[in-house]
Amino acid sequence: MVRVNYRRMRKSYIKYRKFIQSxxxxxxxxxxxxxxxxxxxxxxGLLICTRFMAAIGRFQKGEEIFCAKVVDGELFRLRGDVFGxxxxxxxxxxRKGVKTLVPVVPSKIIAVGLNYAxxxxxxxxxxxKAPLFWLKATTSLIPDGGKIEIPFREHRTDxxxxxxxxxxxxxxxxxxxxxxxxxxxxxxxxxxxxxTIQNSESQWARCKxxxxxxxxxxxxxxxxxxxxxxxxxxxxGQLRQNSNTKxxxxxxxxLVSFISTNMTLLPxxxxxxxxxxxxxxxxxxxxxxxxxxxxxxxxxxxx
Length: 303
What we know:
By secondary structure, the chain is an alpha+beta fold.
């Protein structure tokens, strides 16, 4: 398991952009062939997309907490409301002494259960007819790099990799077709679970709300389609969970719509969309890494 090498990513990105720019320059224009014009137009569109694709994170330097856009590993400070129409500094903020925090501060965390077909099969439970959800304590949040603590060593405690939805606008009682406009973006998460407690109770809030039981981040990606993303969890370098969001029984827009008919969602609220098959126990010293296609990896160690 390796941390993201931003310097290497930046060099690769610059090399990639130069390659695309060379293709744009050499592609025939509209005065040439029609197919050449289409190619040039598509490549220019791709350049624009890569230029503005960015993730949003929360950071701390000394006593100051701030949000920033993360581009090629560099931080561009956000000015204004992160959920409104913010502007960004043109010059990056030096990363020395900067600590990455949980990317949002939610009023609530909503967790969804049995929402992957492969996970439902491994548990031997029937597919739910409606989303099954509960609330997790916001005090369970820890950032990328934070340490997971197991409260009862004699209990079985499991990892669960999850794609998380971050709400961007106040929302109440909307349809699935309206729901996407209220989604700010997506981030990587884990729903750590005390399985011993879970199997002894009919509600799951307690077994999943211990401090450190919701690793989240490091950033929120605001320009990603969640329809078909690979989702993986590595435990000490070994692949344990390996699935795809196309296995989701209830898609993100359906979840946001359904939950909004039951409670008001506020900007920054987090919805954990469920875990795929392959869940398993953790123990002290384990290193867990969640990788979701298109998102920065989330790495945490078990204390």
